[in-house]
Amino acid sequence: MPLPDAPKKSPRVYTLLQNTDLENVTFADIASIGNPVSVEELNEDTLRRLVLVNVARMCVAGEWNGLLTAGGGGAEYSPEIPGEPINTGLGNTRYGVGSFAPYGAAYLTTFSFLGNDNGDKAIYYPFIAPVTGTVSEFGIDIDVVAGSACNLDVGIYTDSGDGTPDTLQMSCVFDVQNSGTGSVYQTSITADVSTNLVRGTQYWIGFCRDTTLVAFSLGAYAQYYIPNVGASSSASSSTSGAIVLRTFDKPLGLVATESPDNILGYSSGKCIVSLKVA
């Protein structure tokens, strides 16, 4: 059955895609068929058929490329910071992703993992990958070392597509008792799924200590001037009331998959994490 008020014959869309299964039709195919098609009444039937085929193939493929951006939707964004390393001769090779647009600010402070069980909760904050490549190093800033044996697990999670951390992609471990203070780096990275990042895609930094009640402090971004990433309890508490997400449970380590039912907005704890990406 043709589209309403359209001729049965499709000289362009259906002709070019005939004998092709929907599961094999790509967004590139749709873009190729539609390039060029001018937006005018004369091409209304072609435009309708393009939309129909694209929606049908997205349902079959289980993705929604083309509705929000040409590359995809959900967790993608496109802030344009330099996509290639700059001033590498000056040692500018590390991306402090917590300070980048659109969620970041560079006003610094410290954050203390206190000697109580609240410090056993995992903390997450989002960032947009500035470059495409493989993560070769994590960095943190230690202000006060732990007084006894303790590690800090740091990792990167994918976004659920609904603005929450989902699957652990990669992780590393920092010895916060013996590492000393200042900038500390870790190049031993576990690929829980992958150590790759894709520029313009939203991910989440996650971190959690592995030993209960052990106190130490890290360099962090101050809660002032940083956008919230979650809801607050009232209008009066909405300013900087949820600059990170924090878990209800106390996992003492990073979990493979985080649940949106297990997290809520928290007003502090956006610790500095730098990434080297090759």
How is the secondary structure organized here?
Layout: H1 13-17, H2 27-33, H3 44-61, E1 95-96, E2 108-113, E3 123-128, E4 133-144, E5 151-159, E6 165-175, E7 182-186, E8 196-197, E9 202-209, E10 216-221, E11 244-247, E12 263-266, E13 270-271, E14 274-277
Antiparallel strand pairs: 1-14, 2-10, 3-9, 3-11, 4-7, 4-8, 4-10, 4-14, 5-6, 5-9, 10-13, 11-12
How would you characterize this protein structure?
With 278 residues, the protein is mainly β. 11% of the residues lie in helices and 29% in strands. It contains three helices and 14 strands. The protein has helices spanning 13-17, 27-33, 44-61, and strands at residues 95-96, 108-113, 123-128, 133-144, 151-159, 165-175, 182-186, 196-197, 202-209, 216-221, 244-247, 263-266, 270-271, 274-277. Strands 1, 2, 4, 7, 8, 10, 13 and 14 form an eight-stranded antiparallel beta sheet that branches. A six-stranded antiparallel beta sheet has the order 6-5-9-3-11-12, with no helix packed on it. The longest helix has 18 residues, at 44-61. The termini are far apart.
Terminal-residue CA separation: 52 Å
* Unreliable parts: 68-74
Structural domain count:
2
CA radius of gyration: 23 Å
Count of alpha/pi helices: 3
Helix content: 10-25%
- Share of β-strand residues: 25-35%
What's the helix-strand series? HHHEEEEEEEEEEEEEE
**CA-based shape:** elongated
- Biggest beta-sheet profile: 8 strands, antiparallel
Average of the residue pLDDT scores: 85
Tally the beta strands.
14
> Structural class of the secondary structure composition?
mainly beta
